[in-house]
């Protein structure tokens, strides 16, 4: 399997799940991400072997059910009076989904903008009882009054969930703790790298260390990504260290996938990145980059180029 790929689903259609993530449930990979075709916003695909992908559903569209649960939230999805540069309606970017064991709901957070500009900088929330079902849209808002652009979600070992997003025109990166139902912001726990212009955050945990990957801000063009680490989410973050080459192998981080080989027990972390095609019609030719992360120690992380990835990890991932 090639490290740079643009797969097609079981209908022969290009797999559009940009800026997204891959979740593993009951031995199945679920790929969730942006799909700006027609009236679609977020789509879900599934696979048993990472090679053959089956289309599941357009899980968020301009026609999704809307629930006015929060009176202070902007509930616009379809904005017919404005034309988007890509697709139709509002811009929904970098959707991420987590599961809440107490409410038994899948919760999606994403970046929301008007079709014609990126001035409002809001986050959006949607929920569903199944990972690949029809999500109910709960609206968009500015978390605690701050701008919110590129974003991600992270659930800690104690099931406390966090929302990480770029604020202040991408100059700051905020980490927020979510409420117990994962539907609202409880508090802002810290601001990272003030004034350093970071986006595309990805957080994961390994051996008691939290890792946060980010990219620089260069529009559709790739740049040098970096990572930092900490023993605590709310303080003690290291300086940023370079990850990959000067263009992160022509990609921007979007997710980390953790696999476990059921034959050897070996655990592997994989970098998933977007190789953006560009604005307009070129967006639909955006590819994906998948590479193994290499740890020489708990705080020394590397991303190295390889033309092929080891497919057996995905066949025998365990859980």
Outline:
This protein is mainly β. It has 1 helix and 21 strands.
Short descriptors:
319 residues, five-stranded antiparallel sheet, 1 helix, four-stranded antiparallel sheet, mainly beta
Task: Note down, in words, how this protein is organized.
The protein is mainly β. The protein is 1% helix and 47% strand. It is built from one helix and 21 strands. It has one helix at 312-315, and strands at residues 4-5, 18-25, 28-34, 40-47, 54-61, 91-100, 105-113, 122-128, 136-141, 151-155, 161-167, 172-178, 185-192, 199-206, 209-215, 225-230, 241-243, 252-260, 267-275, 287-297, 300-303. Strands 1, 18, 19, 20 and 21 form a five-stranded antiparallel beta sheet that branches. Strands 2-3-4-5 form a four-stranded antiparallel beta sheet, with no helix packed on it. It has a four-stranded antiparallel beta sheet with strand order 6-7-8-9, with no helix packed on it. A hairpin with a 2-residue loop joins strand 2 and strand 3. The chain is globular and about 50 Å long. Belongs to the glycosyl hydrolase 43 family. Keywords: Glycosidase, Hydrolase. This is Family 43 glycosylhydrolase. Pfam families: Glyco_hydro_43.
């Amino acid at each position: 399997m090639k490290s740079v790929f643009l797969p097609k689903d079981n209908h022969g259609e290009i797999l559009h799940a940009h800026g997204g993530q891959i979740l593993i449930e009951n031995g199945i990979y679920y790929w969730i991400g942006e799909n700006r075709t027609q009236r679609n916003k977020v789509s879900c695909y599934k696979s048993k072997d990472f090679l053959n992908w089956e289309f599941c559903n357009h899980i968020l569209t301009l026609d999704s059910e809307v629930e006015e649960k929060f009176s202070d939230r902007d509930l616009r999805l379809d904005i017919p009076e404005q034309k988007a540069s890509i697709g139709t309606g509002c811009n929904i970017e970098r959707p991420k989904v987590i599961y809440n064991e107490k409410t038994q709901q899948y919760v999606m957070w994403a970046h929301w903008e008007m079709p014609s500009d990126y001035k409002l900088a809001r986050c959006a929330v949607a929920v569903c009882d199944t990972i690949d079902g029809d999500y109910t849209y709960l609206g968009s808002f500015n978390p605690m009054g701050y701008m919110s652009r590129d974003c991600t979600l992270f659930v800690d070992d104690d099931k406390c969930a966090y929302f990480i997003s770029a604020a202040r025109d991408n100059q700051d990166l905020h980490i927020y703790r979510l409420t117990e139902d994962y539907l609202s912001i409880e508090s802002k726990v810290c601001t990272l790298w003030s004034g350093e212009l970071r986006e595309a955050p990805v957080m994961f945990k390994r051996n008691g260390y939290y890792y946060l990957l980010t990219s620089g801000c260069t529009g559709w063009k790739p740049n040098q990504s970096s990572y930092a680490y900490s023993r605590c989410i709310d303080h003690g973050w290291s300086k940023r260290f370079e990850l990959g080459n000067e263009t992160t192998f022509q990609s921007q981080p979007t997710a980390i996938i953790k696999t476990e080989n059921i034959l050897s027990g070996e655990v592997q972390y994989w970098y998933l990145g977007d190789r953006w095609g560009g604005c307009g019609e070129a967006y639909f030719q955006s590819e994906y980059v998948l590479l193994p992360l290499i740890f020489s120690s708990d705080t020394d992380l590397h991303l190295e180029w390889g033309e092929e990835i080891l497919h057996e990890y995905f066949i025998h991932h365990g859980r």
